[in-house]
Amino acid sequence: MRVVEYHANDxxxxxxxxxxxxxxxxxxxxxxxxxxxxxxxxxxxxxxxAPLYPGHEPVGVVVALGDGVLQFAPGQRVFFHHHAPCLVCxxxxxxxxxxxxxxxxxxxxxxxLAEYVRVPAPNVERDVLPLPAGISFEAxxxxxxxxxxxxxxxxAAIQAGDSVCILxxxxxGLLLAQLAxxxxxxxxxxxxxxxxxxxxxxxxxxxxxxxxxxx
Length: 215
Description:
The chain has helices spanning 43-46, 90-93, 101-105, 121-126, 137-140, 143-156, 171-182, 195-203; strands at 2-8, 11-16, 27-34, 58-65, 77-80, 116-119, 128-130, 163-167, 187-191, 211-212. The protein is α+β, with helices and mostly antiparallel strands. The chain folds into two domains: 2-141, Quinone Oxidoreductase, Chain A, domain 1, CATH 3.90.180; 155-212, NAD(P)-binding Rossmann-like Domain (Rossmann fold, 3-Layer(aba) Sandwich). The strands form three sheets. Strands 6-3-4-5-7 form a five-stranded antiparallel β-sheet. Strands 8-9-10 form a three-stranded parallel β-sheet, with helices on one face. It has a two-stranded antiparallel sheet with strand order 1-2. Strand 8, helix 7 and strand 9 (187-191) form a beta-alpha-beta unit. Helix 6 (143-156) packs across helix 7. The longest helix is centred in the C-terminal third of the chain and has 14 residues, at 143-156. The protein is globular, with a radius of gyration of 19 Å. The model has no long low-confidence stretch (mean pLDDT 91).
């Protein structure tokens, strides 16, 4: 199968690897789409650990089940998260899931940018989500970044009547702005120096009386 292998921002290769074998509780998923996160192209973060197999916003179709997997079926469309917390440790109980030992130990093999991906048993148990029929694979790649934005909205404790300022009208900025609207924010301002991004914010229905440049 073909896999994306990262060495540096100017050295990203497509290599051949065997299709992963799965064990009890695991899934083998055929990739259909995968988002590219900003962290996937942060060379200072990626290059010291290279070679890496990136991709953590993936969706696909279940092709094989490990022993004991009863909640999924071959042919099912799913989103599958790259890590899964234990939900019971000190860090999980405080909402710091990325500090959880289980979260740090669980990962997709070889990565989301591969034709076939092995999903470990903890991820299958706690963080593989069936896709409703009305959601395309492309739209479903936003599940992971949307979850990050939703957590940010929760931590900011946005409430009805609040005024909210979003710095940056990229994909996550637009998601944050729309989530703030859903929470009842009365005024959502997006700050971005790029004109087409400000126009895009208006086009998706951000009810902002002011869209301004940083400079």
